[in-house]
Amino acid sequence: MADAQTLRQLKIKTGVVKRLFKEEQIYRDEVVAAAAQVDKLKAAGADGADIRNAERVQKDSEQMIPRTRKQLEEGLVALQDLVSALQADADVSATQEYQDAAGIVQQVEAAWKGEGQ
Protein backbone atom coordinates (compact mmCIF):
# COMPACT_ATOMS: atom_id res chain seq x y z
CA MET A 1 0.00 0.00 0.00
CA ALA A 2 1.23 3.46 -0.87
CA ASP A 3 2.14 5.79 1.98
CA ALA A 4 -0.66 8.31 2.63
CA GLN A 5 1.83 11.14 3.22
CA THR A 6 3.55 10.45 -0.10
CA LEU A 7 0.25 10.45 -1.96
CA ARG A 8 -0.72 13.68 -0.22
CA GLN A 9 2.54 15.33 -1.32
CA LEU A 10 1.96 14.15 -4.88
CA LYS A 11 -1.54 15.58 -4.85
CA ILE A 12 -0.41 18.93 -3.40
CA LYS A 13 2.51 19.38 -5.80
CA THR A 14 0.33 18.35 -8.76
CA GLY A 15 -2.29 20.90 -7.74
CA VAL A 16 0.31 23.66 -7.49
CA VAL A 17 1.68 22.94 -10.96
CA LYS A 18 -1.82 22.71 -12.48
CA ARG A 19 -2.83 26.02 -10.90
CA LEU A 20 0.31 27.87 -11.97
CA PHE A 21 0.16 26.45 -15.49
CA LYS A 22 -3.44 27.61 -15.85
CA GLU A 23 -2.62 30.98 -14.27
CA GLU A 24 0.20 31.59 -16.75
CA GLN A 25 -2.12 30.84 -19.66
CA ILE A 26 -4.70 33.26 -18.25
CA TYR A 27 -2.13 36.05 -18.01
CA ARG A 28 -1.03 35.40 -21.60
CA ASP A 29 -4.65 35.63 -22.74
CA GLU A 30 -5.12 38.84 -20.74
CA VAL A 31 -2.10 40.43 -22.43
CA VAL A 32 -3.55 39.67 -25.87
CA ALA A 33 -6.99 40.99 -24.87
CA ALA A 34 -5.51 44.12 -23.27
CA ALA A 35 -3.39 44.86 -26.35
CA ALA A 36 -6.48 44.56 -28.52
CA GLN A 37 -8.33 46.91 -26.17
CA VAL A 38 -5.50 49.48 -26.34
CA ASP A 39 -5.50 49.32 -30.13
CA LYS A 40 -9.28 49.66 -30.19
CA LEU A 41 -9.19 52.70 -27.91
CA LYS A 42 -6.46 54.36 -29.96
CA ALA A 43 -8.30 53.72 -33.20
CA ALA A 44 -11.50 55.18 -31.73
CA GLY A 45 -9.67 58.28 -30.54
CA ALA A 46 -10.56 57.62 -26.92
CA ASP A 47 -9.61 59.83 -24.01
CA GLY A 48 -5.91 59.70 -23.05
CA ALA A 49 -6.74 58.56 -19.52
CA ASP A 50 -8.69 55.58 -20.84
CA ILE A 51 -5.80 54.60 -23.09
CA ARG A 52 -3.28 54.93 -20.26
CA ASN A 53 -5.49 52.81 -18.00
CA ALA A 54 -5.76 50.09 -20.65
CA GLU A 55 -1.99 50.20 -21.17
CA ARG A 56 -1.48 49.86 -17.40
CA VAL A 57 -3.69 46.77 -17.34
CA GLN A 58 -1.69 45.31 -20.21
CA LYS A 59 1.62 46.08 -18.47
CA ASP A 60 0.43 44.53 -15.20
CA SER A 61 -0.50 41.31 -16.98
CA GLU A 62 2.82 41.27 -18.85
CA GLN A 63 4.71 41.60 -15.56
CA MET A 64 2.88 38.66 -14.04
CA ILE A 65 3.92 36.20 -16.74
CA PRO A 66 7.63 35.93 -15.75
CA ARG A 67 6.73 35.76 -12.05
CA THR A 68 4.24 33.00 -12.63
CA ARG A 69 6.64 31.18 -14.96
CA LYS A 70 9.36 31.23 -12.29
CA GLN A 71 6.99 29.77 -9.70
CA LEU A 72 5.77 27.21 -12.23
CA GLU A 73 9.33 26.16 -13.07
CA GLU A 74 10.13 25.70 -9.37
CA GLY A 75 6.94 23.72 -8.77
CA LEU A 76 7.53 21.60 -11.85
CA VAL A 77 11.08 20.72 -10.80
CA ALA A 78 9.82 19.66 -7.35
CA LEU A 79 7.07 17.55 -8.92
CA GLN A 80 9.46 16.01 -11.47
CA ASP A 81 11.86 15.06 -8.68
CA LEU A 82 9.07 13.44 -6.68
CA VAL A 83 7.68 11.59 -9.70
CA SER A 84 11.15 10.32 -10.62
CA ALA A 85 11.85 9.21 -7.06
CA LEU A 86 8.56 7.31 -6.86
CA GLN A 87 8.66 5.79 -10.34
CA ALA A 88 10.24 2.55 -9.14
CA ASP A 89 7.68 2.07 -6.34
CA ALA A 90 5.00 -0.12 -7.94
CA ASP A 91 2.46 0.62 -5.18
CA VAL A 92 2.72 4.37 -5.71
CA SER A 93 3.10 4.37 -9.50
CA ALA A 94 -0.20 2.49 -9.81
CA THR A 95 -2.16 5.19 -7.95
CA GLN A 96 -4.33 7.87 -9.53
CA GLU A 97 -2.30 10.56 -7.76
CA TYR A 98 0.89 9.37 -9.43
CA GLN A 99 -0.80 9.15 -12.84
CA ASP A 100 -2.15 12.70 -12.44
CA ALA A 101 1.29 13.99 -11.43
CA ALA A 102 3.04 12.32 -14.36
CA GLY A 103 0.33 13.58 -16.70
CA ILE A 104 0.66 17.23 -15.69
CA VAL A 105 4.46 17.02 -15.96
CA GLN A 106 4.10 15.76 -19.54
CA GLN A 107 1.46 18.39 -20.34
CA VAL A 108 3.61 21.30 -19.15
CA GLU A 109 6.74 19.97 -20.85
CA ALA A 110 4.83 19.50 -24.12
CA ALA A 111 3.43 23.05 -23.93
CA TRP A 112 6.87 24.49 -23.30
CA LYS A 113 8.40 22.47 -26.10
CA GLY A 114 5.68 23.80 -28.40
CA GLU A 115 6.56 27.41 -27.56
CA GLY A 116 10.27 26.87 -28.08
CA GLN A 117 11.30 26.63 -24.44
UniProtKB/TrEMBL annotation:
Keywords: Chaperone, Cytoplasm, Cytoskeleton, Microtubule. It comes from the Eukaryota. SUPFAM superfamilies: Tubulin chaperone cofactor A. This is Tubulin-specific chaperone A. GO terms for molecular function: beta-tubulin binding. InterPro entries: TBCA, TBCA_sf. It is found in: Cytoplasm, Cytoskeleton. Supercomplex made of cofactors A to E. Cofactors A and D function by capturing and stabilizing tubulin in a quasi-native conformation. Cofactor E binds to the cofactor D-tubulin complex; interaction with cofactor C then causes the release of tubulin polypeptides that are committed to the native state. GO terms for cellular component: cytosol; microtubule. Coiled coil: none annotated. Belongs to the TBCA family. The keyword Acetylation does not apply. One of its GO terms (biological process) is tubulin complex assembly.
